[in-house]
Amino acid sequence: MGGRATQEAVVVGGGVAGLSAALTLVRAGVSTCVVERTDYSPWRPGETLSPVAFAELRRWLAPEPLETEGFLASYGLEATWGSEEPHHHSFLTNPYGRGWHVERRRLDSLLARHAQSQGVALWRNACVTHLEHEGRGWRLQASTPEGPRQLHCTVLVDATGRSAQVARYRGVRRQTHDKLCSVSAIVDRPPSHEEHLLRVEATPSGWWYTAPLPQGRLILTLMSDVDVLERHNALRPEGWSALLARTRHLTRGLGGLPAVQRLHVRPCETSRLERAAGEGWAAVGDAAAMWDPLSSSGIVKGLRTGQAAARALLASLRGDREALEGYAREREEEFSGYLEARHAHYAQERRWAGEDFWRRRHAPAPSPHMALGAA
Ligand SMILES: Cc1cc2nc3c(=O)[nH]c(=O)nc-3n(C[C@H](O)[C@H](O)[C@H](O)COP(=O)(O)OP(=O)(O)OC[C@H]3O[C@@H](n4cnc5c(N)ncnc54)[C@H](O)[C@@H]3O)c2cc1C
What we know:
Layout: E1 4-6, E2 9-12, H1 16-27, E3 32-35, E4 48-49, H2 51-61, E5 72-74, E6 76-80, E7 87-90, E8 99-101, H3 104-117, E9 121-123, E10 127-134, E11 137-144, E12 147-153, E13 155-158, H4 165-169, E14 174-176, E15 180-188, E16 197-203, E17 206-213, E18 217-225, H5 226-231, H6 237-244, E19 264-267, E20 271-273, E21 277-278, E22 281-283, H7 285-288, E23 289-290, H8 298-317, H9 323-347, H10 356-362, E24 373-374
Parallel strand pairs: 1-12, 2-3, 2-13, 3-9, 6-16, 13-22
Antiparallel strand pairs: 4-8, 5-8, 6-7, 10-11, 11-12, 14-20, 14-24, 15-18, 15-19, 16-17, 17-18, 20-23, 21-22
Helix pairs in contact: 1-3, 1-8, 8-9
The chain binds flavin-adenine dinucleotide.
């Protein structure tokens, strides 16, 4: 089995960031292939589309409308953060309108179908196993359901999320600034629970969020550092449920604590590549930089960096030698701004300043060059 294909651009990873890059490239007339490891059926985190993310997506898909069937309108946020009582933030006055609660794999697969309808070649269930910089382009090998295949291209986009596989292959290191990890359970939502809002609650050992999901379900997530989670046995249902029982507002309207058997664990540390682009390649979305889910902006960042990287690659194809360097510099500046905003946000919660999770986040805002480690 085997096969060779030549495309001007290959995007490794078909999440929101990769698909945004692919759409930008193909709309500019560049033949583009997305290699995606899954068929979009496994669970994916990131269920709330902020009003600005929704506006961006709608613009992306225009002139086709963004199907919102199966999405739940989101009217705002309730946050218990920095005080005992919750604060409400309504999207009613948001200039971008309301947000949406989505099933993430459905959103990504909808975007993938749209990309295909625009001419993007999409290899599902295909995983890049080897890549080599060859002359002025790239040679990739992928395992696909039809057997191993080869791909040749001139430019490459790393959209593989946290693993940043292309950058890693290029020897670019990743700086990490914390050890944040999410532990989520998906449970049935009682029919009486009709609140369409994101609820966030700070606790001594980290923070929680809950959001309604389509099809009568609800996600409950604990965010904390890996060592704190381990200390509380919170990577397992018993320890996680014990911490959930200590929240004050989170489970309101659920009629008691849900019984949880299965947890989804995802490392989501604040981190960035030391260099988000190089000759003939650029990293986008979480591959370039992971932001704390508290920012609720991973999807919009993915869409925007996908577009920005594609533009820089297009410029480099036209002979602009500065474009990719400029893209990498912008990511570095953006990350500095994000670190400051993250510090200011955590500084608002002072009730448990002595607890490891909060103490670490109250330390002076780190410079983007000062990190816990590089890998
Ligand atoms: C618990 C949690 C909650 C979050 N909540 C929100 C939220 O409410 N709103 C929000 O905006 N953001 C949220 N985020 C962040 C958001 O989910 C991410 O920022 C976003 O998914 C990043 O998109 P991406 O395309 O860069 O990467 P990903 O979504 O990780 O996509 C990477 C893709 O690459 C594929 N891939 C990986 N390796 C290979 C390979 N070798 N070959 C082929 N394909 C490969 C994967 O299958 C995947 O499809 C949350 C994150 C977490 C962890």
